[in-house]
Amino acid sequence: MEESFALVTVTEGIPNPWSFTFLPRGDVLITQRSGKLWRVEAASGRRSEVGGLPEIDAGGQGGLLDIVLHPGYSSNGWIYMSHVVSSSGGSSTAVSRARLDGNRLTDLERVFTADNAGSTTRHFGSRLVFDDEGYLYVSLGDRGESGRAQDLSDHAGTLLRLRDDGSIPGDNPYGAAFSYGHRNVQGMVFDPVSREVWAHEHGARGGDEVNIIKRGANYGWPRISYGRNYDGSRIGIGTAAPGMEQPLVYWDPSIAPSGMAVYTGDAFPSWKGDIFVGALAGQHLRRLVREGTRIVSQEVLLEKRVGRIRDVRQGPEGALCILTDERNGSLYRLEPPES
Amino acid sequence: MEESFALVTVTEGIPNPWSFTFLPRGDVLITQRSGKLWRVEAASGRRSEVGGLPEIDAGGQGGLLDIVLHPGYSSNGWIYMSHVVSSSGGSSTAVSRARLDGNRLTDLERVFTADNAGSTTRHFGSRLVFDDEGYLYVSLGDRGESGRAQDLSDHAGTLLRLRDDGSIPGDNPYGAAFSYGHRNVQGMVFDPVSREVWAHEHGARGGDEVNIIKRGANYGWPRISYGRNYDGSRIGIGTAAPGMEQPLVYWDPSIAPSGMAVYTGDAFPSWKGDIFVGALAGQHLRRLVREGTRIVSQEVLLEKRVGRIRDVRQGPEGALCILTDERNGSLYRLEPPES
Questions:
Q1: With a CB-CB cutoff of 8 Å, which residues 221-280 of chain B face chain A?
Q2: What does the buried/exposed string (b/e) look like for B30-54 if buried means 16 or more CB atoms within 10 Å of the residue's CB?
Q3: Which of B226, B242, B292 lies nearest to residue A248, judging by beta carbons?
Q4: Ordered per-residue pLDDT tens for chain B, 339 residues
Q5: Using CB atoms within 10 A as the burial measure, which of A285, A306, B142, B322 is most buried?
Q6: A196 in B contact zone (CB under 8 Å)
Q7: Distance between CA atoms of A51 and A36, rounded to whole angstroms?
Q8: Which of the following is catalytic: A123, A155, A202, A284?
Q9: How far is B251 from B254, CA to CA, in rounded Å?
Q10: Is B281 at the interface with chain A, CB within 8 A?
Q11: A116 three-class SS
C-alpha cells in the first residue's frame, strides 16, 4: 500500500548536518559535520547551539558525525557521539559520551578511539547503534585505502562492538572488531525483528550493499563486490567467495546510502517493520519491505524533492524524519496528512 | 603441529550406527539406524540393548538417528533422540526425549514432529544441538525433493530451533524454522568460541558446505551451490546470490560429511578449538583449523583406515571419538599415545 504523507520542515539552513536524535520530550539534537551541535526545541522550533563538544578534526568526510542516546538515557543521561580526532597517523574515528545540561555538554569523556588512523579524510564511518543487550556498535570505513579492509591488524574496514564504557567484550572475535571487509558504513540499525544489527555500505561504482552484521563475518571488500572501480576495472575476484558474506540486496548504480531506520510506529501502518535508507547521490528515501530477513520489494520516496539525504530516524508520534545534506541542510518530518 | 594418537576400539559390529553420546560416568549410548539403542559400559566394555524406544520408521536413510543429553542432564536426566516416524504424507523427522533407568528408557515423550513428510526415504537430517541458552536446534533435509528447500510452507529443507519441551520460541523468524535452503544437514555443533551453531551439509555432486547458522538466513539450496547435479548439469543460478549465504568452505569433489565436533579437550593441545568432521564417501576424519570464524587450513586424518565415518564427538578425558558406518560399525577412541 502506498502511504500518503505531509512533509513538514522542522529546521533548515544547517551546513552539512550529519545526524540527529530526539530527546525524551521531543527536542532534537543535530550534529553539523564541521563541528557544531544544535538543539531544536520541540515547542517553539527555536534552535540554539550546544557547547562543550569533544575534540573534532573536521575536514573532508570527517568531523562531528553520529549522535545517539544510551538505551538507559532516562536514568543515566548519556549521549554518545562519533567524531574524528587528530592522531599521530593523521586522523581517526573516536566515540565520546557526555550528559546535557541545558545547552551545554557535561561529564564529557572519550570512551574509545579507533585504531584506524590514516592521512586521507575519507571513509571514517561512522554510525553508533546499541543492541538490546546494551552493546555499542561503531561502524567504520577503510579510510579510502581498500587493502586495509581485509587486514585485521587495525580497525580500518571493520565494525566494532564495545561495552557502553568503551571496553571490549570478552566474546568479540577480533578484539574490538566484530566483523570486517567493510568499505564505508554510514547506515546501521538494531533490527528488533531479527534482533541483529543491519548495516549498509557504500560500494565503489555500483555495489552498495545491505548486510546483517554477524559475529566474525567477512563482508568481502575489496576481494568481492557487485560494483566496479571508478575506472571501470573489476574489483577483486568477483561477486562471491566462500567465507565471505553475500549482501541482502545491492544497488548498481550506486545510490550512495546514508542513514538507516527501522520503522516501528503506528502513524504509517503499512510501513511497520520496514527499513528506510537515505540516499545521497540517489537523492531519495528508499523503503525496503522485508519479510523476516528477506527484502521482498523496494519503494523510492521523495525522489529529487529534498536533495541528498544524510540521515533518517523515527521521531515522536511515529513520524519518520529525514535530514538533508549540503550547504542548506534541513530536518523534515513525514507525518500522516490531516484528514 | 601434527598430533600422534593411538586408535582404540571401544565397541564393534553394530550395523549402521548413527550417533553416540557419553553419560556422565563414561558409559556410552549408541544409536543403530534400524532402530536399536545400545549402552556400552565404560568399565567392562560390555554392550547391552536399551529398551523402551520411541516409534521408529526405519528404511533408506531413515530410522533412529541422533542422540544427545540435555545440558541440564545431571539434574533432569533428559536424553533427546531424533527418529523417523510414519506420517500421513509418508514419513517425517521427529524428536523425542526420555530418561534412562538402567537399560530402559522411561518417561518417553515426543516433543516435536517436523512437518517434512515425504514418500522418499532420503534427506531426513537430523542432528540435535543445544546452544548455551538452552535452545534445541534440529537439522533436517529437503527429503530428496530439492524444490522444497526454498519453500517455507513446510519444514523440509529448514533447520529448526525449539525450546527443550518442543515449543516454538517467539523470536524465531519462521515458526519452528530458524534458517532454510538446506539440502541435508548431518553434522551440527554449537561452537563455544563464536557462540553460534555451525553445520555442514551434503552437496549433490560436489558442493558440500560448512556454514554458520544465522537467524532467518537462506543457505541457497537449490538456487545456488558450488556443486553440480549428478548428471553434470548446473544447479540453479550459480554459486552466489544476494540474500543467500556463502559457505565458510565447500568440498568438490564431495566428501559426504557426517558428524561434527568442536575439540575443547586438553589431550591434544594443538587441536584445541578446531572443528572435526567425519566423511562417509571420503572415508576420513577431517580437521578444520580455524581462527575465529575463518577456516585457515584443513588436515585429513585416518584416510581409508576405518572406512566411512558417520559421527564424531569428544569423549571423556579429551579423547576424540569416531563412529563408523556400514554393516560392521565400530566406535573408536583417539587418545594420546602412551609415552
A1: 226, 239-250
A2: bbbbbbbbbbbeeeeeebeebeebb
A3: B242
A4: 678 999 999 999 999 999 999 999 999 999 999 999 999 999 999 999 999 999 999 999 999 999 999 999 999 999 999 999 999 999 999 999 999 999 999 999 999 999 999 999 999 999 999 999 999 999 999 999 999 999 999 999 999 999 999 999 999 999 999 999 999 999 999 999 999 999 999 999 899 999 999 999 999 999 999 988 888 888 899 999 999 999 999 999 999 999 999 999 999 999 999 999 999 999 999 999 999 889 999 999 999 999 999 999 999 999 999 999 999 999 999 999 976
A5: B142
A6: yes
A7: 8
A8: A123
A9: 5
A10: no
A11: coil
Euclidean distance between CA atoms B46 and A91, whole angstroms:
69
Domain-located, residue A149: yes
Residue B2 lies in a domain: no
∠ at Cα A297 (A291, A298), nearest 5°?
A: 125
Cell numbers linked to A118: 590514516
Q: What is the CATH number of the domain that holds A100?
A: 2.120.10.30
- For residue B130, what are the CA distances in angstroms to B98, B114, B137? 16, 17, 6
Contact across the interface for A244 and B246, Cβ inside 8 Å: yes
Residue A339 has pLDDT above 70, yes or no: no
ipTM: 0.72
* Angle ∠(A114,A118,A121) on CA atoms, nearest 5: 100
Q: In what order do the strands lie in the sheet with A320-324?
A: A6-14, A329-335, A320-324, A309-314
Structure confidence by residue, pLDDT tens digits, A175-199: 999 999 999 999 999 999 999 999 9
pLDDT in tens, A126-175: 999 999 999 999 999 999 999 999 999 999 999 999 999 999 999 999 99
Tell me whether residue B297 is in a domain. Answer: yes
Domain hosting B259: range is: 15-335
First to last CA, chain B: 18
Chain A residues near residue B248 by CB distance under 8 angstroms: 242-243
User: Angle at the Cα of A184 (from A178 to A189), degrees rounded to 5?
Assistant: 60
Q: Is A123 domain-assigned?
A: yes
Instruction: Decide if B247 and A242 are in contact by the 8 Å CB cutoff.
Output: yes
Q: Which residues of A touch B239 (CB under 8 A)?
A: 240
Question: What are the residues whose beta carbons fall under 8 Å from the beta carbon of B332, sequence distance 6 or more?
Answer: B7, B8, B9, B10, B306, B321, B322, B323, B324
Find which of A196, A214, A226, A248 to mutate to test the B interface (most B CBs within 10 Å of its CB).
Answer: A214
Nearest to B292 among A193, A216, A247 (CB): A216
Average pLDDT, chain A: 95
Q: Do A215 and B226 touch (CB under 8 A)?
A: no
Contacts of A245 in chain B (CB under 8 A): 245-246
**Sign of the dihedral through C-alpha B281, B282, B287, B292:** negative
- Residue identified by cell 593523521 is A90
Q: Which of A217, A245, A293 sits opposite B215 (nearest CB)?
A: A293
Give B193→chain A minimum CA distance, Å.
8
